[in-house]
Design a protein that fits this description.
CATH topology of the largest domain in chain A: Rossmann fold
Radius of gyration of chain A: 19 Å
Order of helices and strands of chain A: HEHEHHEHEHEHEHEHEHHEH
CATH architecture of the largest domain in chain A: 3-Layer(aba) Sandwich
CATH superfamily of the largest domain in chain A: Aspartate/ornithine carbamoyltransferase
Family (chains A, B, C): Belongs to the aspartate/ornithine carbamoyltransferase superfamily. ATCase family.
Number of domains of chain A: 2
CATH class of the largest domain in chain A: Alpha Beta
Pfam families (chains A, B, C): OTCace, OTCace_N
Number of helices of chain A: 12
Largest interface: A-B, 32 and 27 residues
Structural class of chain A: alpha/beta
EC number (chains A, B, C): 2.1.3.2
Number of strands of chain A: 9
Shape of chain A: globular
InterPro entries (chains A, B, C): Asp/Orn_carbamoyltranf_P-bd (IPR006132), Asp/Orn_carbamoylTrfase (IPR006130), Asp/Orn_carbamoylTrfase_sf (IPR036901), Asp_carbamoyltransf (IPR002082), Asp_carbamoyltransf_Asp/Orn-bd (IPR006131)
GO molecular function, one term (chains A, B, C): amino acid binding
Oligomer: homotrimer
Amino acid sequence: MSTLYHVLGAKQFDREQLDRLFGSAKEMEQVAVRGGIQRYPNKIMSTLFFEASTRTRFSFESAMHRLGGRVIGTENASQFSSTIKGETLEDTIRIIAGYSDLIVMRHTEIGAAKRAAAVSGVPVINAGDGSGEHPTQALLDLYTIQKEFGGIDGVHIAMIGDLTYGRTVHSLSYLLANYKDVRISFVSPDNVRIPTYVKQYLEEKRVAYEESSDLEALAGSADVFYQTRIQKERFPSLEEYSKAEGKFIIDRKLVDAMKRNALILHPLPRAGEIDTEVDGDPRAAYFRQAQNGLYIRMALIEQCLGGERQGGEG
Amino acid sequence: MSTLYHVLGAKQFDREQLDRLFGSAKEMEQVAVRGGIQRYPNKIMSTLFFEASTRTRFSFESAMHRLGGRVIGTENASQFSSTIKGETLEDTIRIIAGYSDLIVMRHTEIGAAKRAAAVSGVPVINAGDGSGEHPTQALLDLYTIQKEFGGIDGVHIAMIGDLTYGRTVHSLSYLLANYKDVRISFVSPDNVRIPTYVKQYLEEKRVAYEESSDLEALAGSADVFYQTRIQKERFPSLEEYSKAEGKFIIDRKLVDAMKRNALILHPLPRAGEIDTEVDGDPRAAYFRQAQNGLYIRMALIEQCLGGERQGGEG
Amino acid sequence: MSTLYHVLGAKQFDREQLDRLFGSAKEMEQVAVRGGIQRYPNKIMSTLFFEASTRTRFSFESAMHRLGGRVIGTENASQFSSTIKGETLEDTIRIIAGYSDLIVMRHTEIGAAKRAAAVSGVPVINAGDGSGEHPTQALLDLYTIQKEFGGIDGVHIAMIGDLTYGRTVHSLSYLLANYKDVRISFVSPDNVRIPTYVKQYLEEKRVAYEESSDLEALAGSADVFYQTRIQKERFPSLEEYSKAEGKFIIDRKLVDAMKRNALILHPLPRAGEIDTEVDGDPRAAYFRQAQNGLYIRMALIEQCLGGERQGGEG
């Protein structure tokens, strides 16, 4: 199993691997624009979504189809029948691995993807594990910055919203540690601040960061505004949630104060954190970002199926 | 976007377009009978069913596969994850359009398909929007009449059942207005009569119609009996429903009073409105009608993907 | 319809057919190992799961894809929309048969597959009908014994657990009646003993069997230990269930008392009836068994689509 290429967490990627991945994503964009290729007519990808995520699942399934492959999937996490019957994740994965060439998995528990990879006979891609990681989202976020700016070194990024439960923020922070002179401003309500273990990682990697609760103060200085959704379902109580919701909105007024070439990103779906009146602004890059998800996932599938052999995270 | 070909409502079709579509459907029947073709090996159709409809979804997905294409889908309307998270339909469509070449959509709200088409970068086919329209069903209904009778001009059709909430009846009425000397008898309980806006449309188009609550009186004179299901889920209260249910059944006795070459249609599923003892009668055309749905949908997909450029309804 | 090849129940198979099927499964293993073939690029298989079973569905869908075919499916049994609307199974099947070349069906009611086959225009494979039969599971069980031992004649098999509601045990018993000198030990709690009609069938076919509630006593003598899950959802009450649960576990101690070349099978999922500490033992064959499911189902699909014409069970 040790020779399989899994995508489990953001920390497994170094700069060289990122450069290679982004180069591949760029080629994939050309492939997709030309309508796809029949590269893997016999390969089967399983999408195991123990937690529903239509957008992420569609993105992966579209990526596999654009590469000419096949998909078997379950969209209905909570009704995964053998889990209801008491089966362990390990048993499920052992068997599904025998029916497919690649497993894309979303799960409710931190570390689930790593547990899956440990017993799987085929590559596993983590499509989100609870409040743990969501590496493919962070990779497409980073790819978008690279594509829009031509590079990532020296960027000043404001990450806004629920920084405790927002796993994409964690994964993206880890990835950014591979670049030079990056500066991160974590902007959040007090009750959903960035976790200590993320800050410790950044300190180890000598990444400059600061914490703030004043989004306006950053409007004129940051290059990237990475907005996130206040995830109701991740909050322990409704009280905690109502304290956090709606405090850090990106609207017309804020955008007007931004740099000319600033970039507004959001992993989507949004629920009001970015006002729709901003959509037409060229700095609003979130729909281009979602589209980039297709190319990054094509590139990752290619690496998993194409024989890349560099070991997983673990 | 204005050059994309969307299928949003019955009113967008004129006679010439219907003739062309039915000609294409006839060819598609030959294609399907020969087992399908590999016309769109790289094309992806998204089926977004915000409201479950297994039969309609299967019909579209089979049509796409018979044309050699690919499908990504969600069958689980109410669990569409980003909608739960508060995403607008417009955001969802913008992103899904980036992952596919065609969107087939069923939604609970009137006008949803039109809203989707307004922001979609790819063609949208309305597979039913609330109590609004269901144009592809009406097209296959009409195609069945054309196929069985050799033409539609001069036909006398009785539409029976829930005419308030039965959206296929509305769509079919609009389509029939393209033909000459058509006569429509709307037969329904008092509390679910045909809406005024449908009648006004028919008057504008000079289509002869009448309202009735006596199905037996029409048995010997109508050419087509278009039976519909009393849709429990569309009634505001259980009381309203029980007043309507089961009053207008097509049974052996009624069929015996019909013309020799009459046609019994039903959009299906049925729940007792047509007695199964009628199934073996050659006039019972509802299973042939369901089969025609495959050919009509193949023809519509072909028009959407094949570059037909004649603008949508709006 | 009478010339279609359906897979409805274990009793439809005689020894000659089993030999042929197992020969085909062996070839399919080679096909799958080489990555699959494009044998049915235009064929569509419908998976109608009125009761969720992710594993079984994935196994069939993977099998169809490995043969180059296409799949349209529903994973969400209880939400099958036309059923909710009151449609009969017969109506559903008539229509789905018009959209596909093969129907794989799991249902909650005994006899549902046979009812479907009676009206279907395409072959039907029973993927489990209530507490009735699950023939494809039994076929893969039997194939595993044949593959591991080189033959089935003379085998002594202990079937353990819920023998009343465990439909695979019934189907496997019927299949075993085709072989010589087979001996079956039914090991179960008193309240879930093997049904009388299964015993009567075995007596008619002169198969030696016994009933027991002492698993340990058989440890040293049986060749095959066919463990099953105590299926909570099949028990009429929680009381009945708690009486049965957990009484017949296969653990390290029991395995140590088994013959050197004994075989431990389980249709999976398991929920504790086989201790995971046993997984590494070469006698633990349940994951190899699950993998064999792919090959058996490829062989069955091949028979259904490839023109095998020997009539169904009925």
